Amino acid sequence: MDEPATSDGSVLTGSDMTRRELLEVAVVTGGALVGGQLMPGFIPEAAAQAAGARPAPLDLVLRVNGTEHRLTLDPRTTLLDALREHLHLTGSKKGCGLGQCGACTVLMDGKRVKSCLSLAALVEGREITTVEGLAQGDQFHPLQAAFIERDAFQCGYCTSGQIMAGVACINEGHAGSAQEIRDWMSGNLCRCGAYDHIVAAIQDAARATGATRGG
Amino acid sequence: MHPFTLERPRDLSSALAFRAHAGRNDAPAEYIAGGTDMVQLLQEDVRRPERLVSLAGLLDNRIEVGPQGLRMGAAATMAEVAAHPAVVEQFPVISEALLNSASPQVRNQATMGGNLLQRTRCPYFRDVGYAACNKRAPGSGCSAIGGENRWHAVLGTSDNCIAANPSDLAVALVALDAAVEVRGPGGQRTVPLIDFHRLPGDTPHIETVLEPGEVIAAITVPANPAAQRSHYLKVRDRASFEFAVVSAAVALDMDGGRIRQARVALGGVGAKPWRVPRVEVALLGGSLDPTALRRAAALAAEGAQGRGHNDFKIELMQRAIVRAVETAGARA
């Protein structure tokens, strides 16, 4: 699909916009609009804004998986969109974009966070680890291996977020029992319902790394 | 997201000079710290500031416990406070309230100051598809009154807004007489947390006493023998990662089997974090006898007004108080 163009000739990438804005721009530019009942009275004003002046881009440096990247980004760009659309690290997934599903989970300075809830420009200097940075060369992280062994996914969309959250859960010492894992993994949803296998994989990896303290 | 200019000031005084106004949808400039609530609201077009001023790295994040009590820098994260050994030991109600909030990821990102300033979960406030919301668009009406209001408040509401304050932390803090250190362009002032949030009245879009340029710098909790024997009970629709339907924060100072001092506050039911002093007084000098506890808890219902779907909260919050007092009382 062609990128929707704005009236000033610049190009908006879909990932930097919400679904609502994408619909709005599609309306303005005559692009395809699939489904969806739009609220009367809402479109013209918002569409005018989406197509209007854009804020000045910001120069920033992101440290991801041990590498520094210089980027020039719209200030609205979330860390998740910076990773996926600008650094092309598409392992982190966009599910809800609102911090509810956990598919975008990455580690920041070793702690798990939802990358859709951080603006990229505000995490300069932090060490970001994505699922692409987990394996050591050809060697899977023990939790990645356990997910394969336990068949801990069906469609796979939530998997990288589950694995990043699971790695943190083990490191924090919150993988002592199945119940504890369920509680501390509640920020990651799996709509296929692979939860039993995900819990088993985390238990396996916690045992393999000797990190079953806590409770 | 509505376009905004992002400011990344080098020091706090530069940030305050932008005179951003926390928690006001009509403010042209707003502050952002942990961002977990702000980014959701930006994504949903609920907030459309022209300028966003970052507080990242500018605020104190230390957690200190001493003879005076607890002091938490505004930038301390929920996870840091929840896991702090002295908080767990001496202020369990605070740690429990935090661990029962949000998800582990959000607790790593969200700050103490931001937690107190998070906006209501009223679905009508958070969905701009509904035109009527006095909190989002002053004068537009309230969709929740007469709408789906199972999640809404029964205490402190008005005919203009029945939104509930969503913070668990604030309920625990208000029970323990916490205060908010506010810093602004004109200097510093201290506001008791009980006075920090405003009731909706005729102006539900003004949620706190913060003036333009003011930020939360720290939160203090005075030392109190009751804090150690405290408990946070959260009743919700699923066991984890969910906001409270009803919650109760209780702190007790016991003299043998008698209650020497009681602190009780409620969440999920108030337009702001809701302390119930009449319940506290009724508990004084009594035992943990269930009949006496039920009689005291009934006083929480004074002035409560259900709006249909949330009528059940009036009974449920009384039961939550009884259960939380029993649990706290059973603690060594």
Give a written overview of the molecule:
The complex is a heterodimer of chains A (215) and B (332). Chain A contains seven helices and five strands; from the N terminus they run ααββαβββαααα. Chain A has 215 residues and is an alpha+beta fold. In chain A, strand 3 (105-108) and strand 4 (111-114) form a beta hairpin. Chain A starts with 18 loop residues before the first helix and ends in a 6-residue tail after the last helix. With 332 residues, chain B is an alpha+beta fold. Helices cover 28% and strands 20% of the residues of chain B. Chain B contains 13 helices and twelve strands. Chain B has a five-stranded antiparallel β-sheet with strand order 4-5-8-6-7. A four-stranded antiparallel β-sheet of chain B has the order 9-10-11-12, with helices on both faces. In chain B, strands 1-3-2 form a three-stranded parallel β-sheet, with no helix packed on it. Chain B is globular and about 60 Å long. Chain A binds chain B through residues 17-18, 20-21, 39, 42, 46, 49, 52-56, 58, 75-76, 78, 97-99, 102, 105, 108, 111-114, 116-119, 121-122, 165, 168-169, 172, 174, 182-184, 186-188, and chain B through 1-6, 8, 32, 35-36, 39-40, 42-45, 52, 54, 56, 79, 102-106, 108-109, 128-129, 239-241.
What's the helix and strand layout?
The complex is a heterodimer of chains A (215) and B (332).
Chain A: H1 19-29, H2 43-50, E1 58-64, E2 67-73, H3 79-86, E3 105-108, E4 111-114, E5 127-129, H4 142-150, H5 159-172, H6 178-184, H7 195-209
Parallel strand pairs in A: 1-5
Antiparallel strand pairs in A: 1-2, 3-4, 3-5
Chain B: E1 5-7, H1 12-17, E2 29-32, H2 36-43, E3 51-54, E4 63-66, E5 69-73, H3 78-83, H4 85-90, H5 92-99, H6 104-109, H7 112-117, H8 169-175, E6 179-184, E7 187-192, H9 193-196, E8 215-222, H10 225-228, E9 230-235, E10 246-255, E11 258-267, E12 274-275, H11 277-283, H12 290-297, H13 312-329
Parallel strand pairs in B: 1-3, 2-3
Antiparallel strand pairs in B: 4-5, 5-8, 6-7, 6-8, 9-10, 10-11, 11-12
